[in-house]
Design goal:
homodimer, alpha/beta, 14 helices, 43% helix, three-stranded antiparallel beta sheet, seven-stranded mixed beta sheet, 12 strands
């Protein structure tokens, strides 16, 4: 009756979602306060007051038709200019409104970009592990072939050797995500420079430019004075995919953008392809109220210091017990080394203590679990005994 | 550098958009009040007060994380239940929350549905002319083949003979759109019954069910006591695509839904395919604030009587002059017979009087122009002299 592939996509729950549902069931059995649910990567602080105020002002306007009306397909011009101004002021770039295409959030930014840049089932898109599992599906569904680049352990920077080996004449793009979901690692400037060098060399070798797709929903969530290099300054053929889900705590409002800098080869043609892909996928005109909110709040963020408090608590707590973790410099994830080779078995074992940790296999690497610490701070405190017991089961 | 097809989609402006831009240019030359722009189909009345009030209340909530948080992929359960309740009360149907998938608007409803129902480049989707031009692109991009069924003139009901001829073993679905853009015609109950009979017969003949995709963004905009039959009651394998763009005047907010009734063959599997397609296209979780607005305002409409006033003015005015038009029972479009065989030449000629009318060729039929009368009422009054002059050029 329907597409087999779509039935399959729609029938299989993700491991993350399975764990989350299990957590809800356990909460009914043993009480919410006794379940330590680290499964979901959902913002844990509210949107900034400026966002709330601006949205209410817009809705109180006499001209609701302007507030709720269609913007141009690529987004409201004032919104795109505000985004450009904010980035230019923050990163010393020189973007204009014409470099941006407003989207319905991070997933849309990626599916549109992939649809714009690939066209043949032979086209390959390289994905650096560990990665957000939906990347595989987005690339496949865009009509191209996802190629996984294994993780570089234990620092989770880029695995350059493996990446270089996988680049060939079919390579169209490489996706990076820093600060990273699920590892919490931030790519260093050295990593970005080396990546840019490699992609320049390889582009010459294969006779066409390789795009670098930088997926950056966690850009603003970094700790310890770490800076996230602005990737377009290191590599010309960079397309940035952004969403306000995390920085403004608006995950449900589906608002983000795609940036196609002038430095991209045939930039205006690539931008036209982005517009065409948005149209073909049914994405023209991102939600208008929140486009207009962004026009006034492009530089705002939620209270992101909350995540640092949580990061310190869970990271220091686990280190003290004896766990090994990837360097958690950004996003709101801790990537904990599994205490047995099979992370699925480890995650299963952790459930005995009502600790819900996502095994790393679906993120494209084995032997870790992800803890999303965008949770109430006291839950972290209360979970330490459970983490201790879990550790003791393996070490005693 | 990028996908040729997407570059092409993104580079060519639609005829409608071309005319609109021409209108803006003429307004600068001769004054806005002297341009009679009937090009764009944009709501001309504001959102209802209840929508505004509900949105402000939600934004004033203490729990902004709930307001702006992710809903489940298929949409907030309370929202889907409210939509079901409203339809059941209005049309005597028996839907539940589980029959609905909330979407980012009409285009998303269609691209998701088409992706869910088709899977091979040999799959065919029949489109009844005249039609919204993006249908072609949505079907093509979903990976199937659009097949146009010529218009049934002069009443613009279904061309059953042409439709029957085009159904074969590759046929997966038929798209209808009533009240219709661009003709303003509403399919009669007789038409829907005959269509249902034909699809049942043909489904048996070809050995699989043919889906009827009913695209209904104009459902509530009808005049003269005309009723729009609720299509699911006539044909089991109906999927309804809806958007609040017109009924609530929220075109920019991208909020709508897909309805997969229980009566559909293997209904839960088809629903799973819709969920899978939403995921693959990057559409999970429709904009959350407006999902929650719909939960409280599913039965509201904007002041749609405005369109009837306009319809009466333009239709009666043009009839008096001598123009022939399709029966304008719904939506906010008048389909006027061109005064020369080539509608493009006629549209071009009309520009001499600053009358902007969209030629029908891109809607899949020749010899008409579309006037979108969702405009200020006094513009219609002022445009009558221009319509008269245009008529005289051909009749004198």
């Amino acid at each position: 009756m329907a597409s087999e592939k779509m039935i399959q996509y729609g029938s299989k729950r993700s491991v993350i979602r399975e764990l989350f549902e299990y957590g809800n069931q356990r909460a009914r059995e043993v009480g919410r306060e006794n379940v330590f649910d680290y499964s979901l990567g959902n913002p844990a602080v509210p949107a900034p007051a400026a966002v709330q105020k601006t949205a209410i002002e817009l809705l109180s306007s006499d001209d609701l038709m302007a507030v709720h009306g269609y913007t141009s397909a690529q987004g409201d011009a004032a919104t795109r200019q505000a985004v450009a101004d904010h980035l230019n002021a923050t990163y010393g770039t020189a973007f204009t409104a014409d470099n941006f295409y407003m989207t319905c959030g991070a997933a849309a930014s990626l599916t549109i970009t992939l649809k714009a840049l690939t066209e043949s089932p032979e086209d390959e898109v390289l994905i650096n592990a560990p990665f957000f599992p939906e990347y595989l599906l987005f690339v496949e569904n865009g009509g191209a072939k996802p190629v996984v680049v294994p993780a570089h352990e234990p620092d989770f920077q880029v695995n350059f050797e493996a990446l270089a080996e996988r680049i060939n004449v079919h390579t169209r793009a490489v996706i990076i995500n820093s600060p990273n979901n699920p590892s919490g690692v931030v790519y260093s400037e050295e990593t970005i420079e080396k990546l840019a060098d490699l992609l320049r060399t390889k582009s010459k070798e294969i006779g066409h430019s390789i795009f670098l797709i930088s997926d950056e929903p966690y850009r603003e969530i970094v700790f310890d004075g770490v800076t996230v290099p602005y990737v377009t300054k290191y590599y010309d053929n960079t397309i940035v995919c952004y969403s306000y889900s995390k920085s403004l705590s608006l995950p449900g409002e589906r608002i983000g953008w795609i940036l196609v800098p002038d430095a991209v080869t045939e930039s205006r043609t690539v931008y036209a392809a982005v517009c065409g892909a948005g149209r073909a996928l049914g994405f023209v005109c991102a939600p208008s109220l929140f486009q207009k909110v962004i026009a006034k709040c492009a530089g705002e963020t939620s209270d992101l210091s909350f995540y640092r408090t949580n990061r310190d608590l869970i990271y220091n707590g686990l280190k003290k017990i004896g766990y090994e973790c990837a360097e958690p410099s950004g996003a709101f994830y801790l990537f904990i080394r599994s205490l047995e080779p099979d992370a699925n078995a480890f995650s299963e074992h952790a459930k005995r203590y009502n600790l819900l940790l996502v095994p790393s296999d679906d993120f494209g690497c084995t032997g870790y679990v992800r803890a999303a610490y965008c949770v109430k701070t006291d839950m972290i405190e209360r979970s330490m005994t459970a983490f201790r017991k879990l550790y003791d089961d393996y070490r005693s």
